[in-house]
Amino acid sequence: MNNNILLKVENLKTWFPIKKGLLRKIIGHVKAVDDISFQIPHGSTFGLVGESGSGKTTAARTIARLIHATGGKVYFNGENILPLHQSELRRIRKDISIVFQDPYSSLNPRMTVGSIIAEPLRIHKIAKGSELIDRIATLLQKVGLSAAHINRYPHEFSGGQRQRIGIARALAVEPKLVICDEPVSALDVSIQSQILNLLKDLQEQFRLTYLFIAHDLSVVEFISDIVAVMYLGKIVEIAPAVELYEKPLHPYTKLLLSAIPLPVPERKKSTAFVSEIGQEAPAGCPFSGRCPIADGFCCREIPPLEEKAPGHFAACFKT
Question: Which residues contact 87 (CB under 8 A, 6 or more apart)?
């Protein structure tokens, strides 16, 4: 494996059984993540974007071993971490942290800010005593808060401040990979840019690698180096962020881009197809039921993710 690649995902699947009847017989599966592959170089930001229900959060939680994978491989620093037992995962846990979506529910309201940040440090036996207090104070300052906040409780802070606390907790163990699960979607627009700028600054300072999940393509464009678009459990397009926004190939990516508000009200965007996401993928291309250019062949066959241009992959027969 390329030494520059921190995370490599190969044919990852996460299926949830559908059970029915008194005997709870399995009659099918919800294919939340269905055969996806991608890789993230050290120090870069990989954006994973899609509507609610596309499978992006399930993919991230499977990679972090919070959800059991149905199949595939996840290589972290060259090691496949999916077969590891819980006892073996302890050494990996320190290197992968998560910043959660909701800063209100992700922090324990009964714990002080200092205790919240200290918890992973104690679990991994990284620091104790005065060294622990100094480390917490430094982390708070790094995320734009004060060391004086160490004895306060989460309810005493605003949403943006709580998310800064969550970021400090994620960075406490000096991780190599940080999974950002829609970290700004629950915040006011005026605060979102502050948190995004903070994440970029911290990435440069600590040489972090991000897996950044969002449903807003404008947010992903700002922070990501490479972007993958997910639909109904499958990746339908991967490209460098700049190219994806300038030359989108997949009809679903074009649909998502058309939903981004424009700063110039006079300009109009095409919204020719805006039907809602379905619950089940069709037999062929998962997007064929909403696609304006799909034909009978698209409804029967699943398009492979192919390189249409250097570094630009799309799963569409029509591009």
Answer: none
Backbone angles phi, psi at 310, to 5 degrees: -55, 115
Contact 213, 278 (CB under 8 A): no
CATH of 5-95+175-314, one of 3.40.50.2300, 2.60.40.790, 3.40.50.300, 3.40.50.1260: 3.40.50.300
- pLDDT of residue 37 exceeding 50: yes
The three-class DSSP label of residue 97 is strand
**CA separation for the pair 49, 231 (Å, rounded):** 9
Radius of gyration of the chain (CA): 21
Lookup result for tokens 């306060």:
152
Residue tagged 């969002």 (tokens): 214
- Say whether 72 sits in a helix, a strand or coil: strand
Cβ neighbours, 10 Å, residue 244: 27
pTM of the model: 0.89
Token digits for 20? Answer: 């029915």
Q: What are the φ and ψ backbone dihedral angles of 71, each rounded to 5 degrees?
A: -170, 175
How do strand 177-181 and strand 96-99 relate by DSSP bridges? parallel
Q: Is the dihedral of CA 123, 126, 129, 130 positive or negative?
A: negative
209 DSSP β-pair partners: 177
Residue 248 CA: distances (Å) to CA of 31, 37, 213, 260, 282: 26, 19, 19, 14, 23
Read off φ and ψ for residue 256, nearest 5 degrees.
-65, -40
Q: 281, 233 in Cβ contact below 8 A?
A: yes
Tens of pLDDT, residues 149-202: 999 999 999 999 999 999 999 999 999 999 999 999 888 888 999 999 999 999
CA distance 209 to 76: 12
Q: Give me 79's structure tokens.
A: 């090691």
The pLDDT score that the predictor gives to residue 263 is 62
Cα 136 to Cα 147: distance, rounded to the nearest angstrom: 8
Distance CA(303)–CA(293), nearest Å, equals: 14
Query: How far is Cα 249 from Cα 315, in angstroms, rounded to an integer?
Result: 9
> Which residue type occupies 88?
E
